[in-house]
Structure formats: structure tokens, C-alpha cells
């Protein structure tokens, strides 16, 4: 068995997972099924990351996306009880879907043309990086993680520290947005009580 | 002997995934599913970053993906909490029903 053939097999199987899951997300009626289609896409992307020697990102993709974000989606779907099938035949703007399909095909055509054109162009030496440590070349199976760690905690340490601020802001914002404020609740209860008593006294 | 897989193949796959996400964002009306389409587009961008990191031999592309994942996690948390508070007020609301800020 040729290794190139195996690479082809992995690429096309993972590409089918990615695109099949994505089409599932946009066509399935039930939001739970759409979330499962999203899981399929995310696993396919993780396989493509492994195929491109980005081992750490593949692990993070599974842990963060499939493990946390999709679970959060499913949690919200169950919390709100919207896990029933929706009627997709309703189309508020008549020509929207054909136009959206045309736009999608046009976007694929444009991007593919740009990629093919850029592929034949020569890369300037300034644009090239210092080279990627690939596990099969360096002989160290952790070389991707080590190189990424040196880059992240070296060149990008300030941005990395700022992400902690971002996450704190996101947590605080979520609490503020979804909390039922007790003070407003008491005011609402008092309003309801006073309107009830005024109603009975008449 | 067939040629090895080129980085541009991954870029074309990412372009197709991005377009599917964009079309989904336009045709779906459930806010949760629209959010999933945004995730699809973010993943397409991540795939592009990793493919170009290989093509140009630059680890910064993979670091950028790491930061995109952090921002995506924060964005999902805030976005879902907005959707929860909207759907609590109006159960079964679609994107067309959310016109409260209209003047």
C-alpha cells in the first residue's frame, strides 16, 4: 500500500466528513441533528489538522469545539426546549434561497480561482517563516507542541495574557445577560400584588 | 505514482466549507442554527491558517488558530446567552421576529 494513496484516502474521507456535516447543519430541520452535523464537521477538521502535522491544534479542536462548544449548543437547545423540527418550507423573502445558493457557488468559484492563481505565483522569501518542525522529519514526536509553545509563550505572550481578560469579560457578560435579577423580580411581584388587591377591592 | 496532496487542496476545501456556512447563515432563520453556521465559517478560516502554516513554513499560522479558538469560545458563550435571554422572552422566535430595536 502506497503512503500517498493513504494520504489521499484520509484527505477525501475527512473532506467528505467536513462537507457532509456542514450540509447537514444547514439542511436538517431539528436543531439537535444540526448540532450533531456540526460535530461531524469538527471531527473532520481535526483529522485534516493531523494530516497537516498540527497535532496540538487537532487535540484542542476536539476538546474545545466538540467537547465544550457543541455541548454548550446542545445544553441551550435542551434548556430552551426548541428540540422540535422546524418547518423549513417557510421562506419570508421569496427569492432569498436561490440568491443565497448563487452567492455560495459564486463565492466558491471566486475563492478557488484566487487559490489556483496564488498557487502558481512564486512566494517571496520575506513571506516564508522559519520552517515548521514536523515530527517525522525531526524524529521528536512532541516537536509541534514544543515549537507552538515557544511561539505562543515567546512572541505572543502579551496577546496570550490578554485572552484571559477576554474570557473574564465573556463570563461576566454571560452572567449579566442571563441572570434573573431578584430586585426587578420583587418589583414585578409587588406590581402584580397591588394590581390584584386593587382589582378585588372594586 | 500520483502527486502528493498540495496545501491548495486544503484551501479549496476551506473555501467550500466557508461558502456552505455563509449560505446557511443566509437561509436559516433559527438563531441557534445561524450560530452553528458562524462556527462552520470560523473553522474554515482555521483550516486556511493551518494549510498556509504548512505552505509557508510559519508556526505563527498555528498560533493564530489557537487565538481564533479562544475568541470563538468567548463569542459562543456571549452569543448563546443573548439567544437564551431572547428566547425566554419570545419562545420560538426566529431571526425575523427580532425587530425590537427598530425605530
Strand content of chain A: under 5%
Estimate the mean pLDDT confidence of chain A.
85
Structural class of chain A: mainly alpha
Order of helices and strands of chain B: HHH
Can you put this structure into words, describing what you see?
The complex is a heterodimer of chains A (202) and B (103). With 202 residues, chain A is an all-alpha fold. Chain A starts with a helix and ends with a helix. With 103 residues, chain B is mainly α. Chain B has a single domain, classed as Helix Hairpins. Chain B contains three helices and no strands. In chain B, helix 1 packs antiparallel against helix 2. The longest helix of chain B has 30 residues. The relative contact order of chain B is 0.13. At the A-B interface, helix 1, helix 2, helix 3, helix 4 and helix 6 of A face helix 1, helix 2 and helix 3 of B.
Q: Any key phrases for this structure?
A:
heterodimer, A: 202 residues, mainly alpha, extended, B: 103 residues, Helix Hairpins, 3 helices
